[in-house]
Structure formats: structure tokens, C-alpha cells
Amino acid sequence: MSILVLYNPVCGSGSAKQFTETHILPLLSQHNIPIDLILATEYPGHAGTLLSDYLKRSSADLTIVLASGDGTLHEIVNSSILQSTQNYTPNEHQVLLPPAKVSVVLVPAGTANALYSSLFPPVKGEDTGSVEYKLKSLRAFLDGKEGVPLTLAATTLYPPTGDSQAVSTRVVSGVVTSTCLHASILYDSEKLRKEYPGLERFKVAAQRNGKRWYNATAKLLPSSLSGAVQIYDPISQKFIDHPEWKKEKPIVELTGPFIYFLSTVNVDRLEPEFRVTPLARTLPSSGATQDIVIVRPLRDPSINKGDEVSREQYVDKIWQVMKGAYADGSLIDLRYDEKGEVVSEGNGPLVVEYVRCGGWEWIPADNDERAPLVCADGDILTIPVGGKAISVARTPSSDTGFAVYG
Ligand SMILES: Nc1ncnc2c1ncn2[C@@H]1O[C@H](COP(=O)(O)OP(=O)(O)OP(=O)(O)O)[C@@H](O)[C@H]1O
């Protein structure tokens, strides 16, 4: 087993180098763990290059001690999977595999640390900035625990059919794949990184996007596990078959406009306190599925068109949904009352459609500037005009692929 220590010196507050030298290396040395290489990333994308170079030289199973945020892990996952964009059909249930088993010891040094805080949800009052909190994955590795296999979401951006010149693009996520408000926020927040190095940049970007609606058609693809598209029912507190899902017509089509369309794998939160897909933890999936959180404003009984007044009227409501994510994931219980107010009781229409299924297809309307944006673990991609995106969860495996000590 080879051990690689890799850190991103600029992620989060820029403390990964110091943390590696002060805490990680001494702890590995105390446990007599031999290290093959200690590497620092020198530019965006470098983590991916370093890992694929390493895997070209050695086919042995590899453990990476990674001090970074989710973006660096995303680069590693993407670079080490042999990706063939040609001859790829999203219905093929092929497993995405790196050439060797890659196990990751995560040290949260990024801004949001979604995967880490999902694996180690902070208990009330726990200081997520403390050294001990940050060393939990390393301790799990040193204690000889098994890594948790990662489910991956493979997303392909297709050009319009008939465009024989254009090629499709493929990206793999280990945390989040989204469109709409979340993708817009990430798109704008990257530009704010220098001005606001912490989580605040997401809030500033969110304020700039409160009134946007997104025109698209979404298709929900059945899970390879159950063959169904499921939706959360807060009354029974279970996932049930989506009312529009039928065995003979297993793809559920949703029309827009949308405000929120976000899917996750492996995580119930995108920041320590932002539990946007809480059921990933409280009702865990037993296979390759994505949890999808959808908000479509026309489900609000007080709104029937997408004019400026309606958009203005909905701004507070979408923030109530976001606040629900910050309030321990209570967004899943929100409903509209008969006047369209967002409440947490009663039997009005649910504000959030919380779906669990095998994946999704997103077809943006041609006239919508922001609907083609897709966020894959913070990376922003754009669907070509007239094209679409298809995202499919891939089967985890315990003896190969990616695992994270958790
Ligand atoms: N030396 C470097 N100089 C500039 N950018 C770098 C360097 N090394 C890595 N990067 C880039 O830094 C970006 C941010 O890293 P990462 O996503 O791990 O942290 P973060 O954004 O602070 O945290 P999180 O993803 O948890 O919110 C990555 O996109 C990566 O490509």
C-alpha cells in the first residue's frame, strides 16, 4: 500500500501546508506509516495531474492523505477515472473505476468541506475548527477502519442531436451536481473568492440571484436498484413511488420553471450546517442513487405565472427553504398554506419535491441564459445551446474504486 500526502496550500483559509506539517506528518510518523511522496498543488487542476501521473507509474492500491476542500477531491476523482466520452451512453450501468483502489484520508482544509462534514457531522457545540475535529478521518485510517465506498454521479453534457462536429463533455461528482440557483450561486461566488475568502461569498452570491427562475424540462431516471423514481412522503416519513412513475413508463418528466434543482451523492450537507439533502443520512440509500431537491414556484397556490411580481413575491419563500436547510434539514417538511404562505404544518402542497432516483436529465430552454449552467462539485460547466445534461449515479464497490475513511 502506497501513501501519498497531498495538500492544497490555497484552499479555504490557506492553512493546509501548516496543518500538514504540524499535525499530519508527525501523526503518521508516530504510527510508523511510511510516506511515498508529499506533494503540494501549484495551480488549479494540478491535483488531478499529480494523481494521474502517479497512477501511470504505479498500479498498487493507493492511500492519499488529502488536506483540501471538496474541489481538490473532485479533481482527483475526475483525473483518475479513465473517461471515454466517445461511445458513452448514459443507460450503460458501467462502473466508474480508477486503475487502482484509491482510498482517501480527508483533512478538511477547504471552505465548505461538504463530504467531510457529512461523514463527521459536528455534534452540538463541537468546534469544527479544532485540530481534533479535523483529524477524525486520519484517526479512522490509523485505527484500521474500512473506508466508505463513494457513490459517483457521472454527468454528460450533450450538444444538440444532429451536430456531428460537437463532442460531449463528461464530469464526475462525488458530492453535488446541480443547476438553477445553486449553480448560479457557485458561478457568481467564484468571482468573489478574493474579496470574501470564507463561506460569506456564497451568501453574497445568493443575494444576487434571489429573483431568478430557470426554464427547463427535467426528467427523473429510475434507480437501477428499485427500478423506480421515489419521492419523500413526510406523513409516512418514507420514500414512496413518485405518483407519476409507472412501471411501463419509468421516467418522470417535470416541467419548469424551476428555482432549485440540486442532486447529491454521499452527503447530506454542503456545509457543516447546510443540510440540504438530510435524508441521505437519516434514510440512507442502499445503492447508487442521487437525492434531488427540487423547488418549482408554480406549485405555490398563490402564484400562477412567472412575471416580475411573482418572482419578487417568491424571493422570501426560497430563502425560507434555504433557512430550512440551515435548520437541520427541515426544508423537507415545508408546505404552502391556502394563501401560499410557507408553513411547516398542515396538508398543503409540499414546497420541496425531495426525490431519490438513479439520475436525471436536464434540458434547458433555449432562451434562458442561466438554465444551461451545471455545477459539479463547484466546477461550473455550460450545456451547449440546444443540448442537455444527463447525470447518472454509479454503483459503489467495496473492493475497488474510491473510498473515504469516515
Ligand atoms: N496552488 C494553487 N493556486 C491556485 N489555485 C489552486 C492551487 N492549488 C489548487 N488550486 C485550486 O484551488 C481550488 C479550491 O480548492 P478546494 O475546492 O479544494 O477548496 P475550497 O474551494 O476552499 O473548499 P470547498 O471546495 O470545500 O468549498 C481548486 O479548484 C483547485 O484547483
Describe this structure in words.
With 406 residues, the chain is an alpha+beta fold. 24% of the residues lie in helices and 26% in strands. The protein contains 10 helices and 22 strands. It has helices at residues 16-30, 46-57, 70-80, 114-119, 131-134, 136-142, 180-190, 200-207, 279-282, 308-326, and strands at 2-7, 37-40, 62-68, 102-108, 147-149, 152-158, 169-173, 176-179, 216-221, 230-233, 238-241, 252-255, 260-264, 290-295, 335-336, 342-343, 353-357, 359-364, 373-376, 379-382, 388-394, 402-405. An 8-stranded antiparallel sheet has the order 11-10-17-14-13-8-19-20, with helices on one face. Strands 2-1-3-4-22-5 form a 6-stranded mixed sheet. Strand 19 (373-376) and strand 20 form a beta hairpin. Helix 2 packs parallel to helix 3 (70-80) and helix 7 (180-190) packs across helix 8. The longest helix is centred in the last third of the chain and has 19 residues, at 308-326. The chain starts with a strand and ends with a strand. Mean pLDDT is 91; it is low at 83-95. Adenosine-5'-triphosphate (ATP) is lined by residues 8-12, 41-46, 68-72, 75, 110-113, 378. This is DAGKc domain-containing protein. One of its GO terms (biological process) is sphingosine biosynthetic process. InterPro entries: ATP-NAD_kinase_N, Diacylglycerol_kinase_cat_dom, Lipid_Phosphate_FormReg, NAD/diacylglycerol_kinase_sf. GO terms for molecular function: lipid kinase activity.
